[in-house]
Write a structure and sequence with these properties.
The protein has about 240 residues and is of the alpha+beta class. The protein has nine helices and four strands, in the order H-E-E-H-E-H-H-E-H-H-H-H-H.
C-alpha cells in the first residue's frame, strides 16, 4: 500500500475511534483493526478495512447511539464494522472459528484492551464451517457467472475469500499453512494434486504485475472453478 493511502486510512481509523468513544462512552470496550489492513497484503482496489467493535452490551438503544458513526464510516466507502458484545466474543468463538482464527493472527487494537490475542477458538466445528463457506461461495460464483457478471471481476472479487478458505482447508487437514499466498497454494497443490495456475494468475493481477485485461477469462475461469470444486471434495471427505 502506498504511503499516502496508508496515512489516509490511519486518519480515518483515528476519527472512527474518536466518534465511537464519543457516541458509546463507557459501553465501548475496544476497537480492533483486523484482516489484510492489519497485515501486509492490503490492496486498495480489492481489500476492505475491517474493524471489530466490542461493547459491554448491544441493546437496540446502544446500537442507535452509534448508528450515525456507522453511517459516516459507510459513506467513507468502508465495510460496516463487526459489532459484538464482550460476552458474545467468547461464546461465539466455536461457530466463528474461521473469522476468529484469522483475526487472532492479524489484528491491531486501536482502542481498549486486547481480547483477541489469547482468545480460545474451539475447532470442533471448524471443518463443517469451512465446507459450508466453500460451498456457499461456490454457489454464489455460479449464480453470478450465469447472470453474465464480468468474469474477470467475478474472479478478482472472489479470489481473496477462496484463498482464506483454502488456508483453512489445510488447517482442517491437520496442516500448518505456509506463510505467503503462493507458498500456501503450492502446499495445497502438493497435498491434493491440484492445478492452481488460475489462482496464481489472479494473484499476479491483484499485485499489479499483470494487467487485468491481459487475463484470458475464458481459459482461466474453468480452471478456477475446478480447483475450488476439488478442494471442497477433499474437505468433504475429511
Amino acid at each position: 500500500m502506498r504511503q499516502n493511502e496508508r496515512e489516509r486510512i490511519e486518519s480515518r481509523l483515528k476519527e472512527l475511534v474518536e466518534r465511537l468513544r464519543s457516541a458509546a462512552d463507557a459501553n465501548l470496550h475496544s476497537v480492533v483493526l483486523y484482516g489484510s489492513a492489519a497485515a501486509s497484503d492490503f490492496h486498495k482496489d480489492f481489500s476492505d478495512v475491517n474493524v471489530l467493535c466490542l461493547f459491554q452490551e448491544l441493546s437496540a438503544s446502544a446500537m442507535l447511539a452509534i448508528s450515525d458513526t456507522v453511517q459516516w464510516w459507510k459513506k467513507e466507502n468502508h465495510t460496516i464494522p463487526l459489532l459484538l458484545s464482550v460476552e458474545e466474543l467468547t461464546h461465539a468463538a466455536d461457530v466463528f472459528a474461521i473469522e476468529l482464527l484469522d483475526m487472532r493472527k492479524h489484528h491491531r487494537v486501536l482502542q481498549g484492551t486486547d481480547l483477541i490475542a489469547n482468545l480460545n477458538v474451539p475447532l470442533h466445528l471448524h471443518r463443517v464451517q469451512v465446507e459450508r463457506e466453500l460451498r456457499t461461495k461456490l454457489i454464489l460464483l455460479r449464480q453470478n457467472f450465469v447472470n453474465k457478471v464480468d468474469v474477470r471481476k467475478l474472479m478478482l472479487d472472489s479470489v481473496s475469500s477462496f484463498m482464506t478458505l483454502f488456508r483453512h482447508s489445510l488447517i482442517a487437514m491437520g496442516e500448518e499453512p505456509e506463510s505467503g499466498q503462493r507458498a500456501m497454494l503450492q502446499q495445497l497443490q502438493r497435498r491434493l494434486s491440484l492445478d492452481t495456475r488460475a489462482f496464481v494468475e489472479l494473484l499476479n493481477v491483484r499485485e499489479g504485475s499483470v494487467r487485468s485485461d491481459a487475463l484470458d477469462a475464458q481459459t482461466i475461469f474453468p480452471m478456477y472453478l475446478k480447483t475450488i470444486e476439488q478442494v471442497i471434495s477433499a474437505v468433504d471427505q475429511l
